[in-house]
């Protein structure tokens, strides 16, 4: 399945919007494959990511991540790629019937012992060597415990005490866990699927700053040789069916803050067959690339052929976001006021409408009203200008401002 | 919405059969493991035996036969290998059987990653890498 980028247009700086994008009833969910657990979110606030793609080749000029603007040191910190692999271990699982350890009379020398284990179906005796005896006494295994022994490593773990022995003692620790006596065969096969992200493998392997680099996030660039080695190994495992690569979901907030180099990198990275599902969030339609004045086609080249543009906010969604906003601000509002505010949100901008909530609640409080009503909304609407009205205002009174003689450089809103 | 009783009967029979098949495989694994553990105990007993050159009484299906101990040990070892293999095969089949049963019952298939297991050495390697 090919992954595809999504561009959503929504006001991303408003915190509610992020949860509504990634929340359980989000419209985006319908587009996403099932591996919903693996999301990386890149946020531009603060811009603290290091440049490091997990797959795909960097354009050479990207190798030095020099910050040109505050937001542009781009940042493909983590292309989320996950590598599940399966481990099969033989374990012996059973309830301890009896442990018998013979100490030599002299006090020194090798101990020998016997361990009797049972399941609901069978019972058997194991001879114990010195090492096993030590491990058993370290775990304080007694008769009545349910234990597992890893056959390959000899590691013993205690699962709990058997229910049949529940009445052996009256006083016991609160942490004593009672479990059923295991059923079936004694020697079982256990399959464990581990997941590691490729980024982790890379980082540990590169060891520029040791293992701790993984946690500090301060990884720097991964050397091409390391990457090649890892890619080769991973490819081999994939071939043998031993591991799978799951592209995750990469969510880039405020995508219009990225510069042209970032987009060229993104564009290339999306060609890789290990590309993640990319969700880009922005509240701009067409805007310029940062660092390329004069070119007005930023998101469109990613936007047209390869992506699905999802506009998240229609009337219903707008009202929902406003309701959540009111809840956050502890503002009560009448249904009529909601309707008016939703209209405002649709016709001007959602962000403006959200900002009116607090202002309107203050007006309502001043007139000692319990709820925000339509008249409060009207009042703040007349007091605070939205984007288009303030532009219009500026145009109308252009001559009255300083520097009005600068012709052709009329006020432009982003 | 009355269904043809013959159809229902046939369907139920099919599900029953699949379920029985699966349970039989599961029981067989347990039985074989019992045998495996008994063999293991016997091997240990032979190994600890102070007089390895004598003969041992071996029980074949209710009849005791006296056999040289070296021979007995060899037989047991061979038996163990066969048992291991058989249990492995049964486990592999079990997965298929469970899925077939689920399909017949209209339940969703058991989902896994369908991965082949890593070998022991590879696991050791991975663990060493991940532990730094």
List keywords for this structure.
heterodimer, A: alpha/beta, OB fold (Dihydrolipoamide Acetyltransferase, E2P), Helicase, Ruva Protein, domain 3, 3 domains, 5-stranded parallel β-sheet, B: 132 residues, Helix Hairpins, two-stranded antiparallel ribbon, 70% helix, 9% strand
Q: Total helix count of chain A?
A: 12
Number of strands of chain A: 13
Which word captures the global form of chain A? elongated
Gyration radius of chain A (Cα, Å) is: 32 Å
Strand content of chain A: 15-25%
Counting helices, strands and paired strands, the structural category of chain B is mainly alpha
Question: How many helical stretches of chain B?
Answer: 3
Report the end-to-end length of chain B measured between terminal Cα atoms.
64 Å
Order of strands, main sheet of chain B, comes to 1-2
Number of strands of chain B: 2
CATH architecture of chain B: Orthogonal Bundle
State the CATH class of chain B: Mainly Alpha
CATH topology term of chain B: Helix Hairpins
Give a verbal description of the structure.
Chain B: It is found in: Cytoplasm. Chain B: Residues 69-100 form a coiled coil. Chain B: Belongs to the prefoldin subunit beta family. Chain B: Keywords: Chaperone, Coiled coil, Cytoplasm. Chain B: It holds the Pfam family Prefoldin_2. Chain A: Residues 85-290 form the TIP49 P-loop domain. The complex is a heterodimer of chains A (414) and B (132). Chain A has helices at residues 15-22, 130-138, 198-206, 213-216, 224-239, 260-269, 298-306, 315-329, 335-347, 350-366, 374-383, 387-396; strands spanning 6-9, 39-42, 81-102, 112-118, 123-128, 145-150, 156-162, 178-179, 187-197, 246-247, 249-252, 277-282, 308-311. The model of chain A is unreliable at 1-78 and 209-219 (pLDDT under 50). In chain A, helix 9 (335-347) packs antiparallel against helix 10. Chain A folds into 3 domains: 6-78 and 248-311, no CATH class; 86-192, OB fold (Dihydrolipoamide Acetyltransferase, E2P) (Beta Barrel); 315-383, Helicase, Ruva Protein, domain 3. With 414 residues, chain A is an alpha/beta fold. Chain A is built from 12 helices and 13 strands. In chain A, strands 3, 4, 5, 6, 7, 8, 9 and 10 form an 8-stranded mixed beta sheet that branches. Chain A has a 5-stranded parallel beta sheet with strand order 2-11-12-1-13, covered by helices on one side. Chain B has a single domain, classed as Helix Hairpins. The N and C termini of chain B lie far apart (64 Å). Chain B has a two-stranded antiparallel sheet. Helices cover 70% and strands 9% of the residues of chain B. The mean pLDDT of chain B is 85. Chain B has helices spanning 5-48, 69-105, 120-130, and strands spanning 55-60, 63-68. In chain B, helix 1 (5-48) packs antiparallel against helix 2 (69-105). Chain B is mostly helical. In chain B, a hairpin with a 2-residue loop joins strand 1 (55-60) and strand 2. Chain B is built from 3 helices and 2 strands; from the N terminus they run αββαα.
């Amino acid at each position: 399945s090919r992954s595809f980028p999504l561009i959503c247009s929504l006001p991303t700086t408003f915190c509610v919007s992020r949860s509504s994008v990634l929340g359980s009833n989000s419209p985006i969910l319908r587009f996403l494959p099932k591996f919903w657990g693996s999301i990386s979110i890149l946020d531009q606030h603060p811009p603290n990511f290091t440049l490091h793609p997990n797959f795909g080749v960097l354009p050479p000029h990207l190798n030095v991540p020099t910050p040109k603007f505050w937001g542009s040191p781009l940042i493909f910190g983590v292309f989320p790629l996950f590598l599940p692999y399966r481990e099969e271990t033989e374990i012996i699982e059973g309830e301890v019937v009896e442990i018998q350890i013979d100490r030599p009379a002299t006090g020194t020398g090798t101990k020998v012992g016997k361990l009797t284990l049972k399941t609901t179906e069978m019972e058997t005796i194991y001879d114990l060597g010195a090492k096993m005896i030590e491990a058993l006494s370290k775990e304080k295994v007694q008769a009545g415990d349910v234990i597992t022994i890893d056959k390959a490593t000899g590691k013993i773990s205690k699962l709990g005490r058997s229910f049949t022995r529940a009445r052996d003692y009256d006083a016991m620790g609160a942490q004593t866990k009672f479990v059923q006596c295991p059923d079936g065969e004694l020697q079982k096969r256990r399959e464990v699927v581990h997941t590691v992200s490729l980024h982790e493998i890379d980082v540990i392997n590169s060891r520029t700053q040791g293992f701790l680099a993984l946690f500090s996030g301060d990884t720097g660039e991964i050397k091409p040789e390391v990457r090649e080695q890892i890619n080769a190994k991973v490819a081999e495992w994939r071939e043998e069916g031993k591991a799978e690569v799951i592209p995750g979901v990469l969510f880039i907030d405020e995508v219009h803050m990225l510069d042209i180099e970032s987009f060229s990198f993104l564009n290339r990275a999306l060609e890789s067959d290990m590309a993640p599902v990319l969700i880009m969030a922005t509240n701009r339609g067409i805007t310029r690339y940062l660092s390329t004045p004069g070119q007005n086609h930023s998101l469109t080249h990613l936007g047209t052929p390869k992506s699905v543009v999802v506009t998240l906010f229609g009337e219903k969604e707008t009202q929902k976001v406003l309701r959540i906003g009111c809840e956050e601000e502890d503002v009560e509002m009448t249904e009529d006021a909601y309707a008016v505010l939703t209209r405002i949100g649709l016709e001007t901008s959602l962000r403006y409408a959200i900002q009116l909530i607090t202002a309107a609640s203050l007006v309502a409080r001043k007139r000692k009203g319990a709820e925000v009503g339509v008249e409060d909304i009207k009042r703040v609407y007349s007091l605070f200008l939205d984007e288009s009205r303030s532009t219009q205002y500026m145009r109308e009174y252009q001559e009255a401002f300083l520097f009005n003689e600068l012709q052709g450089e009329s006020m432009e809103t982003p | 919405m009355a269904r043809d009783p013959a159809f229902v009967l046939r369907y139920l029979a099919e599900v029953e059969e699949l379920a029985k098949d699966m349970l039989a495989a599961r029981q067989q694994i347990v039985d074989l493991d019992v045998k495996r553990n008994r063999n293991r105990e016997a091997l240990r007993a032979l190994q600890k035996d102070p007089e390895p050159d004598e003969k041992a009484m071996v029980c074949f299906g209710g009849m005791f036969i006296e056999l040289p101990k070296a021979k007995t040990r060899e037989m047991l070892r061979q038996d163990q290998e066969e048992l291991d293999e058989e249990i492995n095969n049964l486990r592999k089949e079990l997965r298929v059987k469970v899925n077939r049963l689920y399909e017949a019952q209209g339940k969703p298939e058991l989902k896994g990653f369908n991965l082949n297991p890593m070998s022991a050495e590879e696991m050791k390697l991975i663990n060493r890498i991940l532990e730094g």
